Every structure is written in structure tokens, then in C-alpha cells.
Amino acid sequence: MKIIAADEFIEKSKPSYSQNLDIDQTVLSIINNVQQNGDEALYSYTKKYDLVQLDNFLVSEKEIDEANDSVDKDFTLALKQAKDNIISYHSNQRETSWFTESTNGTLLGQKITPLDRVGIYVPGGKAAYPSTVLMNGIPALIAGVNEISITTPVNRAGKVNPYVLAAASLLGIKRIYKLGGAQAIAALAYGTETVNKVDKIVGPGNSYVARAKKWVFGDVAIDMIAGPSEICILADEDANPTYIAADLLSQAEHDEEARAICITTSSCLAEKVRNEVYQQLDKLERKEIASSSIENYGRIVLADSLENAFQIINELAPEHLELMIENPTEKLPYIKHAGAIFLGSYSPEPLGDYFAGPNHTLPTSGTAKFSSPLGVYDFVKKSSIIHYSKEALLQASDQIVKLASTEGLTAHANSILVRKEDEDA
To answer: Which residues bind Zn(2+) (predicted)?
Structure first.
């Protein structure tokens, strides 16, 4: 893990155009095939990529019951408590319709309506993520989405991870498809004989899933195009290097391209953190993945000052930001761009991933500069409401005609004039 000076620090690398082009060629071929051939294409891709010949994509109630029976009670209890925390947090994000009425007969407002159908992609490659079911499903349920579908890959036996099924069952989600990869995104976006078309697709995935979401966007809505997971820890000289190393590795184990960055003003702490990282690496079950991440993308950055550190953070706009500094709450005003901010040494990133309540679906790759964590607001749409009485419209008619005429849109102006002339007749 390299220790580098702030002025040498290069923002995390992004996939090159040529890399994306190679992926896109495959993804577009898959999307087109699914559009043209529906279930037939899906069965073919499942056999090709998952090495399984399925005879049905839908998970049966029997399979869900078997999953619930197979998971241990401690997991179920933990899952239920996480569910309660996530519901409690996201319930505060509910938006309501509003209206304002004036004495001259105008009524203006905004109508909030939940989406009809949402598809959640739950990864199942290097690991299975029941937490993804909760984090994506709960805000959709709170928003009032009528139909929620899940797609998730199967194992070599043609089975979905039982913990994922248990999480879906806990939320009452029963429409679960045994589908992964870009083909799952295409099926959700356009529908097949078995898969219902949705209005929005959410959830993380590998680079093929991310590019597929990018290509179907516009035909359906998506939450975001997620890149590799990332963590940035700002630490002062009094921070605990053992905690810092553990938290860096908690993200490095996600995949080989995960970004783990520590920023500090203390060269002494930087050395201690680096030593701790390598000591803890040897004990990890996912050592190979985490080692690749740390060697290729892990960095300890020596900042000249806290002000310099904040500049680096705001340029990075990290997905996860931990502030292991004195009085972290007081420093919040200096942070402009971050997906989730964890304050103090006892608020590690995994707390947010699983349990605290805020959503763990967060903007990556610098997109926290202009986007937000997944929330209830992502599962509703807004309609403007406009009502004018006759008197109110006539009162504003001259101004509207003037504006329309200035833009050369005389039919717009005429729409007002015919009403005014009708009244004058």
C-alpha cells in the first residue's frame, strides 16, 4: 500500500473508453438478443454463464419456505432488527403532495405518485447480499410501489442463495427471478414471456450489469451507474491505526477494483496504518481479492493540513467517508461531496452497510458531487398541478400572450386569446 504526498495523489483511475467499448459490445448484443428472443435468450445465457439448465426462472414458494427453514435464527433476528432500523430511517424521507390556493382562484401544487413496477438486481457472484434486498426493497415499499421484482443469479445447482430469499420473504417480495448479468437487466427493461417489464431498475452489480443499466436508461429509469466500492478515511495523529486498517480492508474485500484510501497529516500514523493493513490482510478469508485492491488502488495520502485534506476529499467525492478526527461533527461543514459520512472511531463503514438505517446504495466514482444515496424519493414521481379560474386567467392573459408572441409561438398566444375573445364577445 503506497504512501504518497498530496500533490502526487492521482484521483482513482476510471475504465478507459476501450475497456468500456469491449464490455458494451457484449452487453448490447445481449440486450438485443433478449429483446428479440425473450425467454429463449435468457435460458441460453443462464446455461452459458451460470452453467445451469433451468426449466423455470421464477423462484417457487417451496424454495422460499426451504430457504427460511435453512437460515439460522441469529441471522433472522439480526435481519429483522436491521429491517426495523432501515424502515425507521427511511420513513422520514416520505414526501407528500402539496397545494397552495390564492384568493384570485388559482390552485397550484405537486402530486406525489409511487412508481408502478420496480426491479431490484441483487448480485450473486463473489458474494451474496441479503442486505441489498433490504436497502433497495424497503424504500420502494415505503414509497408505495405496487410490484417489486428481484433478479439474482443462481449457483451451479440452480438455486438462489437462501439468505437472499429469506430477506425477500421478510419484506413480502415473492416475484424473484433466477437471472443474473446483463441479460437480467434487459429482461427487466423490456420484459419477456416470464419476466414483467418494470419502470425502474435499482441495485448494484458488476461492470456488465452497470453498462447494461446505462444502455437501457431512457427506456426505463435506473438508480445510478455504480462503479467499484470505495472508502476514504480522514485520520488525525490520535486515530487508532488498527481501526483504520480494518475499515480500509472492509471495502478492499469487495472486489479487486475497490478503492481504499486513507488521508492523514501524520507520517507516523501513515506508517502504522500501512503496517496494520498488511498484518490484517494475512488473516482475511478474502485475502486474494483484498490484496489486489490494496496493491493496485489502496493509497495513504499525506496532506499538508486538514484544509488540504478537505480539498482532496471534496475532489474525490467518496462513496464512504469516515472522519476519525477530533470533533468530527464540527468539521461537517467542510465536507461538500460524499455519499455517506461516518463520524468518529465507533461509526465504521460496515455499520452503515448493514444496520444503522441509512441506505448503503451510494454514489461512486465521484458522482457524489451531483447525486445522493438511494431513498424513498427514488421510487416516486412528481406531477405539477395547475388550476386557474376564468378570472385569474383573464387577469394574466396579456402577460402570457406577450411572452408567447416574443418567442414566436403564436399558437400558444392564440390559446389564450380565444378565451379572452370569447369573454369579450
So the answer is: 251, 254, 353, 412
Task: Give the CATH H-level superfamily of domain 2-13+228-369.
Answer: Nitrogenase molybdenum iron protein domain (3.40.50.1980)
Q: Which segments are annotated as binding site for substrate?
A: 229, 251, 254, 320, 353, 407, 412
Reported as a single tens digit per residue, the pLDDT across 203-256 is: 999 889 999 999 999 999 999 998 889 999 999 999 999 999 999 999 999 889
Which residues are annotated as part of the binding site for NAD(+)? 121, 183, 206
Catalytic residue numbers, as ranges: 319-320
Taking the whole predicted model, whether its pTM rises above 0.85 is answered as yes
87-119 exposure pattern, b = at least 16 Cβ within 10 A, e = fewer: bebbeebeeeeeeeeeeeebeeeeebebbebbb
- pLDDT tens string 147-193: 999 999 999 999 999 999 999 999 999 999 999 999 999 999 999 99
Element (H, E) at 381: strand 380-388
Sequence ranges of the binding site: 121, 183, 206, 229, 251, 254, 320, 353, 407, 412
